[in-house]
């Protein structure tokens, strides 16, 4: 009669295989006790099996650990995002609707609640330059460079317009850069129905390429607000120039107050601005015909036509100046406050908008002609004014039937490109250079 082996407690086993599983224990209990040599062989087999089991567990755990780790990348190496092949055109905002806020409205409300809470507790609002009226020293050289690039841009566009023809519609804001106007039926002027939505082309000027966005020049942006009755006591200059002046550029014709002590605010109320100073009178009241090199006024007359061999060089310099002005304005607007009307194209450089009542946009009667101020974006201060891209300026005019095959580009980029400048890669997706324009009879066969 066979006798079963007594149950062996784990404490009596060798420490090298303490972690034996229950299934192995059950097998050990059911194994018949036949002899001492058989028992030793069984113990060796069990020990060998436990060692193999532990090695397998370690291998699996190490594999899982290694697979869970991502390969380390060098933080100094940044992956450049590929430039898309084609992008959509900038959306045309409806005129009977307010512009969207560049900052989410919930964040604006949250910041207002925090300021109100600090004011109720009697705590001053923490302000940093330039919000406290002081200049940012690191941005002063950039402001001078942006102003110099702005002057180069005006001079270059004025010279190129002597050789590159530009047309503008007399009924709407459409601009076209070619030997003749296009035939796309998208005119929205008051008499467009009589012309079947065709444009009424006239010779264009520099204001059709560089859209004049002007702003009031303020001697003290934190001083008295401009009222409707006093609006003619202030000069209006390009918004880009006013932004550079407030960022630290000194122009004798347009002085600006430079504070040595920061202003103090409690909520929305200024409790210490260092007093009010008498603002100098506008210099243009004495001699309004004095030319200014940073204004587009009569720029075509101030700059003569260039030589034919200098046109490609001037076009490339103008293209580089346009890119620098746009990037510089974006950097300055991250620090200095610029306000824009949510209904019209009015722009004000300063912490608060003016109180002049000349907004004639949607539902201006409800606002008594006042502007709906909100934070501005770079396209409102320095608009690109996109125009249809013409691949062959001497070819046939653009047709309305092939409208979806054409691309667009900023007006300055289109002028410089036709003058011989290299187009930057970031403008090529919107120009749709990879699309083949079919013939008129082939356009109906395109899916």
TrEMBL record:
Family annotation (PROSITE patterns): APO
GO molecular function, one term: RNA binding
Residue intervals of the APO domain: 168-253, 340-425
Superkingdom to which the source organism belongs: Eukaryota
Name under which the protein is recorded: APO protein 1, chloroplastic isoform X1
Native organism: Populus euphratica (Euphrates poplar)
Lineage: Eukaryota, Viridiplantae, Streptophyta, Embryophyta, Tracheophyta
């Amino acid at each position: 009669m066979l006798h079963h082996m007594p149950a062996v407690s784990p404490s009596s086993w060798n420490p090298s295989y303490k972690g034996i599983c229950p299934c192995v224990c059950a097998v050990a209990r059911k194994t018949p006790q036949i002899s001492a040599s058989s028992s030793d062989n069984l113990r060796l087999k069990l020990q060998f099996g436990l060692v193999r089991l532990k090695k397998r567990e370690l291998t699996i755990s190490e594999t899982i650990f290694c697979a869970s780790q991502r390969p380390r990348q060098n933080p100094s190496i940044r992956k450049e995002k590929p430039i898309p092949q084609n992008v959509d055109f900038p959306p045309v905002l409806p005129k009977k609707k307010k512009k969207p806020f560049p900052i989410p409205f919930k964040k604006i409300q949250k910041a207002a609640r925090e300021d109100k809470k600090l004011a109720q507790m009697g705590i001053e609002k923490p302000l940093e330059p330039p919000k406290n009226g002081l200049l940012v020293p690191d941005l002063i050289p950039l402001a001078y460079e942006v102003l110099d690039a702005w002057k180069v841009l005006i001079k270059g566009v004025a010279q190129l317009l002597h050789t590159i023809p530009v047309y503008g519609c007399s009924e709407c804001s459409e601009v076209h850069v070619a030997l003749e106007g296009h035939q796309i039926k998208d005119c929205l002027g008051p008499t467009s129905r009589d012309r079947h939505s065709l444009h009424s082309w006239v010779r264009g000027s520099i204001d059709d390429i560089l859209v004049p966005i002007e702003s009031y020049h303020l001697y003290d942006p934190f001083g008295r607000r401009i009222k409707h009755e006093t609006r003619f006591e202030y000069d209006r200059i390009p918004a880009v120039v006013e932004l550079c002046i407030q960022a630290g550029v000194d122009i004798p014709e347009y002085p600006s107050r430079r504070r040595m002590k920061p202003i103090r605010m409690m909520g929305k109320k200024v409790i210490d601005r260092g007093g009010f100073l008498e603002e100098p009178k506008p210099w243009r009241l004495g001699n309004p015909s004095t030319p200014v090199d940073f204004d587009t006024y009569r720029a075509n007359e101030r700059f003569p036509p260039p030589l034919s061999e200098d046109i490609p060089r001037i076009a490339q310099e103008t293209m580089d100046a346009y890119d620098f002005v746009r990037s510089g304005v974006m950097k300055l607007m991250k620090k200095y406050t610029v306000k824009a009307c949510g209904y019209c194209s009015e722009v004000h450089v300063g912490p608060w908008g003016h109180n002049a009542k000349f907004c004639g946009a949607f539902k201006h009667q409800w606002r008594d002609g006042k502007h709906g101020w909100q934070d501005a974006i770079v396209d409102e201060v320095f608009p690109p004014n996109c125009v249809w891209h013409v691949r062959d300026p001497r070819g046939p005019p653009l047709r309305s039937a092939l409208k979806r095959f054409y691309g667009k580009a900023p007006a300055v980029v289109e002028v410089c490109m036709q003058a011989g400048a290299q187009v930057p890669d970031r403008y090529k997706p919107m120009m749709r250079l990879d699309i083949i324009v079919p013939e008129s009879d082939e356009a109906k066969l395109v899916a």
